[in-house]
Specification:
The chain is an alpha/beta fold and 369 residues long. It has two domains: 140 residues, NAD(P)-binding Rossmann-like Domain (Rossmann fold, 3-Layer(aba) Sandwich), CATH 3.40.50.720; 172 residues, Dihydrodipicolinate Reductase, domain 2 (2-Layer Sandwich), CATH 3.30.360. The protein is built from twelve helices and 15 strands. It binds nicotinamide-adenine-dinucleotide (NAD). This is Oxidoreductase.
């Protein structure tokens, strides 16, 4: 197979991970890196072309595809320029920082027919694929609801080195819950309505440290999700699947999917049911641990991006899909701030029509960070 020439834009925390995966991947050839801090990045990657401006990377190295791993605020403008040049893109999450810019990017992506993948890497875990298959096969009957928790204690340094994390948009809703929202959309179905409350009682920062949301899914399934960056717990997906060394493995499940014929914990994939598909609370219930392998989701994401670029696979998460995740996540923040239930259908429709915000929306959505 001919190697796909790829450029990486932004060589920070996640960009360096992508660079390592791209160098190791037999089907990609790293054409170059762009980062504002050209000298420091050059010193780290001797022998690789490093540009201080991403336009120079696009003009001179001419990659067939790029990974956009720069700060959120730059995703839309860089993505639009890549689309106009016909370059396929893996774009980090959140897809953009505002829904208006997501709609602009979507128009360019469509007009230029480029292929896109958004970096909610969690979709690529084997446990997630297995969960979707089990739910789709009806293992637990009709999906009635899902209960989720994401709770961890971020150290003081996390806020000291990046004070924007204490301000509006820097809290667990837009940093952490966005991954859970994407996961829930992927496994439980589209989110149609959102209600929420949030609190800043633990850290007393302007931004929330804790939030709870009530989610209404397609076909009437109900979800509750709790997120906090001020609580010590083993219940985050990161700890449950052990996807990164910085979040030590707990193996604990942070999700419970409940259905008319049984329940499933995630990521442990413990299945609870009564004998012979029984549905009676007076009868005993038994558990069985099902199996899915643990894989590197970043490598699996790159494998999938290769297949998307080569036209061998439909993207698991296009720019439009990533923008729908952003719509639902921003709605959690908006519902908590306003105390209102937010209906998402007209927002999805406006995005698809390239006319964001919808006429019915009187307030500006908050920025994602
Ligand atoms: N998928 C995930 O789990 C995950 C994890 C972390 C971050 N992210 C996302 O990845 C993106 C980057 O986050 P990070 O934590 O790596 O940030 P970071 O601050 O560590 O790195 C960003 C890098 O981009 C460079 N940069 C800034 N503007 C640029 C531009 N216009 N052109 C080229 N380079 C530019 C900076 O110099 C810096 O090196 C964000 O969108 C973030 O939300 C995703």
């Amino acid at each position: 197979m001919a190697n796909i020439s790829i450029g990486v834009i932004g060589a920070g925390l996640i960009g360096r991970k992508h660079i390592k995966k791209a160098i190791e991947h037999p089907d990609f050839e790293l054409a170059g890196i762009a980062d504002l801090d050209r000298d420091a990045v050059s010193a780290q990657y001797p022998g690789i072309a490093v540009f201080g401006d991403y336009r120079s990377l696009l003009d001179q190295a001419r990659p067939q595809a790029v990974i956009i791993a720069s700060p959120n605020q730059s995703h839309a403008s860089i993505g639009i320029e890549c689309a106009r040049l016909g370059i396929d893109m893996l774009i980090e999450k959140p897809v953009t920082d505002t829904l208006e810019s997501a709609a602009d990017l979507l128009l360019e992506v469509r007009a230029n027919k480029v292929r896109t993948l958004v970096g909610h890497h969690r979709r690529h875990h084997d446990q997630v694929k297995t969960l979707r298959r089990l739910l789709g096969d009806g293992l637990i009957g009709n999906l009635v609801g899902v209960s989720a928790i994401w709770a961890a204690y971020k150290p003081d340094d996390y806020f000291r080195i990046a004070p924007w994390r204490t301000q509006s948009g820097g809290g667990p809703i837009l940093i952490n819950l966005i991954h859970e929202i994407d996961f829930l959309r992927y496994t439980a179905g589209e989110i149609r309505g959102v209600s929420a409350i949030s609190s800043s009682r633990q850290r007393q920062f302007p931004v929330e440290d804790t939030a709870g949301a009530l989610l209404e899914f397609d076909a009437g399934c109900i979800g509750t999700v709790f997120a906090s960056d001020s609580a010590v717990s083993p219940w985050t997906t990161e700890q449950g699947v052990g996807e990164a060394a910085e979040f030590p493995f707990s193996g604990e499940s942070s999700y419970r999917f409940v259905g008319s014929r049984g329940s499933l914990e995630f990521p442990s994939l413990v299945h609870w049911a009564q004998a012979d598909g029984g549905q009676n609370w007076n009868r005993p219930i038994q558990s069985q641990r099902l199996f899915a392998s643990s894989i590197d989701p970043y490598r699996a994401q790159l494998d999938h991006f290769r297949d998307v670029v080569l036209g061998k696979a439909e993207s698991l998460l296009t720019v439009e899909d990533g923008a729908r995740t952003l719509i639902a996540t921003l709605a959690v923040a908006e519902a908590a701030a306003s105390g209102r239930r937010i209906d998402l259908d007209d927002r999805y429709e406006a995005l698809a029509a390239g006319k964001y915000p919808p006429a019915s929306q009187d307030t500006n959505p908050r920025k994602a960070s």
